[in-house]
Structure formats: structure tokens, C-alpha cells
Amino acid sequence: MATQLSDPELIASLQARVKELQAENAKLLSQLADCHSHEMEKKLFGPDEKGVESDKGNRKSEEKIKNMPGYNTRFMSHHSKRYVALKVMYFGKRFYGFASEAQMEPTVESELFKALEKTRLLVGDKKESQYSRCGRTDKGVSAVGQVIALFLRSNCKISATDNGKSGVAALDEQYEGEIDYVRVLNRVLPNDIRILGWCPVPVDFHARFSCLSREYKYFFWRENLDILAMESAGNKFIGEHDFRNFCKMDAANVHNYRRRITLFEISPTDVRYNGNQLWVIKIRGSAFLWHQVRCMVAVLFMVGKGLESPNVIDMLLDTNRILRKPQYSMASEVPLVLQSCEFDDIKFTCSSDAGEVLRVHLMNESQIYQLQAAIFHEALLNCVPLSNDQSLLPFQGTKKKVSHVPLMSRPTEPSYEERRAKINSNT
């Protein structure tokens, strides 16, 4: 009788198999791209023009390809390619999230692929490039440490181990002489997206499944919040727990709601406005569920306002006792930032020239936002007349007191089992 694997062993086994299939897929895609390349050469140039070695002939051939409708870099067989990880920063305010599957525009992903196509760095389409992303941030969420991986055109010579066929540059190739991916892409990306660095990675690398941990930051104004109570409550998240009461449940696709939180911190920043200090919550974990961080923060704010006890975290984490998630609103998406994604042996690099241009760009953007904040503050002073003995504390006299319904007394959402039963009954 076969021994039944535990959940961690099964997950590790499946992840290993995924990596094997990805490596095999990359090899087949390289062969396919090579076949497409030879077929296109025959259609474009015919037998008489094929094999022309002169510079004039090569330039003429390349121009004929470039001028074709639907020109694609995968047909440029004289270019090598390499599998590359890119570190991406973006400000999420105007985007409908990171991923482009929702058919809402613009998304960060759609803007990235527009830039890749414009710079002709893309090798084939998204599927053929073996594209992967570390996370799918929501609408309005920002990131300074998102990571994607895909095949990109390369200046590196084809390694002898590749037999001159796949055009895949070996990982031990030197960085010198390689395309400056950061500089090239940042020149065409919109101002609210930037590439921070790049790194060659093995073909079995997957931006999502190879990630060891992710770290998020959530910024908030302290106002009258009880920071010590929030810290006491937040520390209860550390460890492995079932977080189904702290997420938007996707019962059709997600069946394991256990996640491990390895770090929780609350600390002040050096930003102040009218006597109010900006604080930040830092949360690190191996992986996160849909809307998990925003749900965690929402409950922490209830604790900070004295509306809930820190022990409410223990109750919501006890899914044997609390079978259904109480209904509550998530925290705003705007202050949430994907801070970093951690991988083994991945060191992102950026040329000194590209780094200086990036630094100047971010400094200019920061000054623009500071000017806008000054204008809003000036408007506030002019639109809200104050007598000499009044102070201008944020939101003073504007907040309505709303009676709080304890979480454990609120209507609840369907449980995972109830959702699955409904899905099964409809199939």
C-alpha cells in the first residue's frame, strides 16, 4: 500500500515537477522558435538570398523583416536570447492591478509588454517567452520589488554547449557587452513604471514558485490609534495559520488557506504633517492570499481604535471555532506597497549610467508630488478659514461617529465548505 504524502511533501513534490516541466517547455519553445525562424527566412528571401554574408545583404534582409506587418523578434535568428529576471517598480494609482487577464486597461503588465515590444527585446509572445510574475497586486497597489522573468533578446554570443541552435546564452556569460535592459526599457516606459535591475536566471526559474518570501508595507497616519494594542494583535499573526478569515476566498481555485507569516513590525517614519506622524506596518511571509494584507490591516485598525480586543485575532485564526468570516471592509489599497521578493542566488544589477538616470527620475517625481501636496495644503488654508485660537489638525470635526458592531456579532460570509458545495452542485 502506497504511503500517503503529507501536505508539505505533496506541495514540494508538485513544485519540483513544475520546475521540470518548465525546463522541458523552455527547450521545446527554443526549438519551435528556431523552426519558425528558418521558415520565415525561406518565405522572405528565397533560396537565392539565403546565406548572404555581406554587411549590405544582412542590413537589407533585416530591413525586410522589420518592415513586415506583425514583425516579431522571434524571427531574428541571428540574435541570442537569455532567460532574465527583472525587478519592477510601479505606482499603482492609475492601474487596474498588475496582471492583464482582467481585460481592464491600463495594467502594469500591459505597459511592460508594450515597452518590450517597442524595444524589440521580446522573444516571441508572452507564452513563448516563458513569462512568469511573482505576484498579482490589486488595483491601486504599488510595488518597489515586484519581479518578473522571461526570455529576452541578448548580445551574448551563443554558447558552444547550445550547439548554435537554441540561441540561449549560458548563465556564466559576462555582463559586459550585454544589452542594458534597465536603460533601454526605462526610456520607453511611462513615468509611473521603472525597471530597477536585472539578473540572468536558469530556465527552471519561476518568479512565483521560486520566491522564498514576500514583504509588504502598509502606510498610515497614527492619529489616535493605540499602537501598542495594534502591535500586540499583529504579533499573533506570526507563524503558520489558516487565514481564510483574513482574505477574499476563492473556493474554486484555492483549497489550502494556511500561510506562514515570519515577520510583523509597526514603526514610525520621519514624515509628519500638522502634528500627525506617518507610521508603517511591515509584514513578511512565504506567500499571501487574495486581499490578505488589506484584511489583516483592517482588523488591526479596529483594534487600534479600541473597537476590538487584540484577542479577536486569535478568534479569527481559530477556523474550527469561527467557521464563517464576519463581514467587514478591507483597508484601502492606496497605502499598500509590495516592498520586496526574496530569491536564492538572485542579485539584480543596474549599470551606473542607468542607475543615475533612475535616481534623477525618482527625485524629479518626488519633487512633483511634494509641490502638489503644497498646493493642496495652500488650498486647505484658503478654503477653511480658521480663527487664531484654532488648530488645523487633520480631519478635525469632519468625522462622523459610527456605532461599531463587534466582528463576532456581524453577518458572516459562506464557509469554504459551503462555497465548494455550491460549486459542485452547479457542475
TrEMBL record:
GO molecular-function term, one example from the UniProt record: RNA binding
Domain of life: Eukaryota
Keywords, ordered alphabetically: Isomerase, tRNA processing
Region (Disordered): 43-64
Name of the molecule in the record: tRNA pseudouridine(38/39) synthase
Record GO biological process: mRNA pseudouridine synthesis; tRNA pseudouridine synthesis
Gene3D superfamilies listed in its UniProt record: Pseudouridine synthase I, catalytic domain, C-terminal subdomain, Pseudouridine synthase I, catalytic domain, N-terminal subdomain
Sequence similarity: Belongs to the tRNA pseudouridine synthase TruA family.
GO cellular component, as recorded: cytoplasm; nucleus
Organism, scientific name: Abrus precatorius (Indian licorice)
Matches recorded under InterPro entries: PsdUridine_synth_cat_dom_sf, PsdUridine_synth_TruA, PsdUridine_synth_TruA_a/b_dom, PsdUridine_synth_TruA_C, Pus3-like, TruA/RsuA/RluB/E/F_N
Residue ranges annotated for the Pseudouridine synthase I TruA alpha/beta domain, each copy included: 235-344
